[in-house]
Amino acid sequence: MKPEGFFLPDDSVLQEIELKWMHIGISNDFLFGKVMQDPYLCQKLLERILPDLAIDRIEYPELQKSIRPDSAAKSIRLDVYVKDSAQTVYDIEMQAVSSTNLPRRSRYYQSIIDLQLLDAGQDYDLLNSSFIIFICRDAVFDCRRHIYTFRSCCLEDPSLILEDATTRIFLSAAGKLDDVSPQLKAFLDYVAGTISDDSYVQEVDLAVRRAKANRKWRHEYMTLEMKERIVRRQAYAEGEAKGKNIGIIIGMILAFRQNQLTDSDIAMQLMQRFSLSEDEILDYMRAADEADARGDIY
Q1: How far is CA 203 from the centre of its chain?
Q2: Phi, psi of 77 (to 5 degrees)
Q3: How far is it, in rounded angstroms, from Cα 78 to Cα 60?
Q4: What is the DSSP letter of 167?
Q5: DSSP characters over 36-101
Q6: What is the pLDDT along the chain (298 residues), one digit of tens a residue?
Q7: What 3-state class would DSSP assign to 147?
Q8: Rounded to an integer, what distance in angstroms lies between the CA atom of residue 156 and that of residue 171?
Q9: Alpha-carbon distance 185 to 146, whole Å?
């Protein structure tokens, strides 16, 4: 007998994931990370995004680098993390679904990457220049541009740039303006699902097809996808159980009050039955007050 809340995938789920693998393209972050393990393709993409930079070569400190600053902090997994010969760091992230938290996410990525770049006791001048680049299939900032480049500047004097050597770039495959090169536009169109005869796009498309034929990567993708589904299903089950407990506790508080129990007696009952802290009990008391004021029935 499987434990309550445990999710064991059946054949239909496995078939669904395999079908998904067959239909994903470069806008999938897993596949993008695999394709960009090719230094030639990765460097060519950076040259299209940053044509003013002279990038002679790139190196991979780690493939799909995972960073966890400490046990309590949120960990991140970088899709493509590379350096050039000048030790400039580039993090390229593929974003297939729309998200309103990209600016703050980029801020967190920047802070975590910086922590990895500087050892204790080193001078701040040794911090590498860095570019964090998000490639988005959907529109970003509710605007029509293909590219948005951010560097910190003085609000009182916008011409004064804060020279902290960091740049954040957001690319949108849904842009409408004529604001990027034809070469970059061809790649963004490919991210959106339209293939052209652009030579680089053709090379990337060939790499995508080869990656999808790679049995090891297919197995890795299916394993990751399955783990994510199990985590989501278990989180849903735990949330549902917690929601039921919340309703039970609030209902008990209201029932105790109807029976003229004091709040201190109610707190003692809750502490014994649910092992709640004083702060948690106060939160439930306030929730019960709000439920009583709304006339909710438990």
Answers
A1: 27
A2: -125, 115
A3: 12
A4: E
A5: TTSHHHHHHHHHHH-TTS----EE-SSTT-EE-SSTTSPPEE-SEEEEETT--EEEEEEE-S--S-
A6: 444 444 445 677 788 888 889 999 999 999 999 999 999 999 999 999 999 998 988 988 665 566 655 545 556 678 898 999 999 999 999 987 766 788 999 999 999 899 888 887 888 888 999 999 999 999 988 789 999 999 999 999 999 999 999 999 999 999 999 999 999 999 999 999 999 999 999 999 999 999 999 999 999 998 888 877 776 666 556 545 555 577 788 888 888 887 778 888 888 888 878 777 888 888 888 888 877 776 665 5
A7: strand
A8: 28
A9: 8
Residue 257 CB-density burial (10 A; 0-12 exposed, 13-18 middle, 19+ buried) = middle
Buried b (16+ CB within 10 A) or exposed e, 141-152: eeeebbbbeeee
* Residue type (1 letter), 275: S
Instruction: Report the relative pairing of strands 166-172 and 130-136 from DSSP bridges.
Output: parallel
Distance of alpha carbon 79 from alpha carbon 64, whole angstroms: 5
For 9, phi and psi rounded to 5 degrees?
A: -65, 145
Cβ atoms within 10 Å, residue 153: 12
Is the pTM for the entire model greater than 0.85? Answer: no
* DSSP for residue 21: H
CA–CA separation, 281 vs 253, rounded Å?
10
Cα(267)–Cα(285) distance, integer angstroms: 9
Q: How far apart, in whole angstroms, are the C-alpha atoms of residue 210 and residue 214?
A: 6
Domain boundaries along the sequence of the chain? 11-213, 240-294
Instruction: Report how far residue 238's alpha carbon sits from residue 258's, in angstroms, rounded to the nearest whole number.
Output: 30
